[in-house]
Amino acid sequence: MSEIGLDSALIGTLYRAACLAELDALKPGNVHAYAPGHRMVLADFVTSADLSARPLARAGAGVGTRVRDGVAATMAAVGQNTNLGILLLCAPLAVAAERGRTVASVLDTLDGADAEAVFAGIRRANPGGLGEAARHDVAEPAPGSLRDAMAEAADRDRIARAYVTGFADVPAIGLAALREARTAGLDPTWCTTAIHLAFLRAVPDSHVARKHGAAAAEGVRREVEATLAGIDLAARPVDALLALDASLKGRSINPGTSADFTVATLFWDALAGAGARLA
C-alpha cells in the first residue's frame, strides 16, 4: 500500500479528465466526439463529468455515498443515466487513492451502508436492461453486504464482477492495452481507442448482453475481433472504425460496459501517475 493518499481536489480533476478523454476518442458503438448515436448528446456527458466529479472525489466519503451522490448530481442536470457504470468503477479507485490503500483492501471493507447507497443510486439512474434478479434485486431493500450483492450479479454484469475480482480486468485488459498502445507510439486519443477495443474484443460486453442477449454480445466481440485483424491503429483508421460504429448504432447496440471500463482504466493510470498504488 502507499503511505500517503492523494488530495481530493486532484482526484476530482483526474476523474473529470478521464471522462473527457474517453469522450474524445473514437469508440465504436458508443457516444463520442466523432459521431452521434443512441439519441444521446455529447454535451450531456461533459456536464455529467463536470457535476459528478465533486461527489466522486468528496473527502472522507465512502464508496456508496460517492456513487449515490454522483448519480443524483448527474440525473438532476441531464435527466438520464450517463455515468452509473463509470461511478461504480471509479468510486473505489477514488477512495483507494485518497486513503493510500489498494483497491482490493477498499473492496474488503464495503458494508451495509455502501450497499444501501449504491442501491439507491442504481434505482435513481434506472439503467437500461437492468431487469429483475432472484436475489438482491435493486427494487428490494439493500443487503447487508455490497460485495454479496455484486457476487450475485457477477456472472451477468462485468462491473459487478469487478467488485468480486478486485478490479482484475482493469490491469489485465485495460492497462495492458494502454502500455502496448504507448509502446507503439499512439497519441493519447488513439491510446484511449485501443483500450476500448481491447475490452470489446476480450470479453462480451455485459450492457449489450442485458439489452440483446448473451449471443448478441458474443457476436459483437467476434465482429470487433475480425475488424481489428485488418487494421493498424497507428495508421488512425477512422473510416474503418466509423463503419463499425455506424453498423453497431444502426442495430441499437451500445457497448457501454466497455466504455465504462475505458474511463476506469484512464482514471487508474492517472491516479497511479500521481503516486497512488492501487494494486
Automatic annotation (TrEMBL):
Superkingdom of source: Bacteria
GO molecular function: ATP binding; triphosphoribosyl-dephospho-CoA synthase activity
InterPro entries in UniProt: CitG (IPR002736)
Pfam families (alphabetical): CitG
Protein name: Triphosphoribosyl-dephospho-CoA protein
